[in-house]
Amino acid sequence: MSDKTYLDWPFFEDAHRALERDVDAWAAKRLSHPGHGSDVDAACRALVRDLGRAGWLKCCVPGAYGGAREQIDSRSLCILRETLGRHDGLADFAFAMQGLGSGAISIAGNDGQKRRYLPKVAAGQAIAAFALSEPESGSDVAAMTTGARLEGDEYVLEGEKTWISNGGIADFYCVFARTGEAPGARGISAFVVDADTPGLEIAKRIDVIAPHPLATLSFRNCRIPASQRLGDPATGFKVAMQTLDIFRASVAAAAIGFARRALDEAMARAKSRKMFGQVLADFQLTQAAIADMATGIDTSALLTYRAAAKMVATETSQQVIDRAVQIFGGLGVVSGQPVEKLYREIRSLRIYEGATEVQKLIIARETLK
Ligand SMILES: Cc1cc2nc3c(=O)[nH]c(=O)nc-3n(C[C@H](O)[C@H](O)[C@H](O)COP(=O)(O)OP(=O)(O)OC[C@H]3O[C@@H](n4cnc5c(N)ncnc54)[C@H](O)[C@@H]3O)c2cc1C
Q1: Integer Cα distance of 325 and 333 in angstroms
Q2: Coil, helix or strand at residue 129
């Protein structure tokens, strides 16, 4: 059982503390046996449905469209992801993608677009996805080549998006494409594309070490009404960055949730594993590892709630989980063990939504100012 004293820190309101208590109780019941089986698509769909029924997805959209608060509240997202992440990585993923996948609509959509999509996202009745990355444009987002050409009252999309989480199970995709008003970042617009639009295909499913729905999408003569554009033409890059700005801090929170779980598992193991006439936790080297893990988690949590520090939280969480695997010895690398799962689940958080190196560049730029 995790230490919950962090909830007393001044960053939280009573509403956040109540949220943590309620989602933790829900997760303890719903996610107590998170063996999702081999059908990760079905598991994800069921998680979205149940997260919606339980009301947690309301935190992913603004109040007027079925949301919990007037505006999306970053700390509520963090509480939810940290708590879900502690219980089950796939549940955290299913939750996070509803917010990230619909964020462009919340930010730039008009009233009609928001009414059409957001209440269903909040209820878990529509699955969302965020389609920004391309094979030749990951960290360098402005290098994207997928195009959207205006023909009459339609846009025609051509190109490829890859690494798209929920690709294959999403009901709609928020797609960023080049509309050509200017080179680079200033010539990109945002669109919402329904999954059943002719010309949008799932080109390839991608298997990753922590399985979740992930795909490459292809757009070939994919025609959408011009009314599916989100916001003004040429504002897409800004919309994408604003979406990531809201949800990136919650990646840090998910990492902290994983790390807290790893520490819980490691302590339980260290206290029960007998060796050399005592238990593993009696050895000072183990105690030093536990101390490093606990301070790493607290440091990350303080920085996350204070400064949305994705870099510190994800890098530290990786180290904490690695220590937990070490404490488990051989058991730590057995498939299905919680720490083995965490070891696979943490890795991509250091890459997506701004890799650590990109975070460093931004921090250095602000510091050098
Ligand atoms: C599991 C997973 C889920 C994802 N889900 C989505 C999604 O839903 N939607 C979406 O649009 N994308 C998604 N992505 C894509 C993700 O955003 C990209 O992987 C990320 O932006 C990095 O791009 P890249 O993989 O092309 O790596 P590259 O851009 O080739 O970067 C490779 C590495 O270069 C380093 N690097 C980057 N910039 C610099 C620099 N300036 N100096 C030095 N080193 C640098 C970093 O270490 C980086 O990891 C997902 C990725 C993963 C792994």
Answers
A1: 7
A2: strand
What pLDDT, on a 0 to 100 scale, did the predictor assign at position 170? Answer: 98
Ligand 1 pocket member 328 (CB < 6 A): no
CA 278 / ligand 1 centre spacing (Å): 46
DSSP 137: B
How far is the C-alpha of 85 from the C-alpha of 79, rounded, in Å? Answer: 10
Summarize the confidence of residues 188-198 as an average pLDDT: 98
The pTM of the full predicted model, rounded to 2 decimals, is: 0.95
**Spatial CA neighbour of 251 closest among 90, 77, 135:** 77
Q: Which two tokens stand for residue 261?
A: 């779980």
For 239-286, what is each residue's pLDDT tens digit? 999 999 999 999 999 999 999 999 999 999 999 999 999 999 999 999
Please state the separation of Cα 292 from the chain's center in Å: 26
At 107, list the tokens. 């930010």
Residue 126 confidence (pLDDT)? 98
AA identity, residue 262: A
How far are the Cα atoms of 5, 81, 115, 167 from residue 253, in angstroms, in the given order? Answer: 16, 6, 29, 24
Catalytic, 353? Answer yes
pLDDT score of 306? 85
Smallest Cα–Cα separation from 11: which of 308, 242, 254, 320? 308
- The residue written with tokens 């509309």 in the block is 179
Q: Which of 352, 359, 363, 365 to probe ligand 1 with, by most ligand atoms within 8 A of CB?
A: 352
Q: Which DSSP symbol is given to 282?
A: G
- Mean pLDDT value of segment 333-337: 94
| Residue nearest ligand 1's atom 32 by CA | 139
Please report the pLDDT score of residue 364 as a whole number: 87
> Residues 107, 242: contact at Cβ < 8 Å?
yes
Burial of 197 (0-12, 13-18, 19+ CB in 10 A): middle
What is the per-residue DSSP string for 58-121? GGGS-GGGT-SSSS--HHHHHHHHHHHHHH-HHHHHHHHHHHHHHHHHHHH--HHHHHHHHHHH
Size of the chain in residues = 369
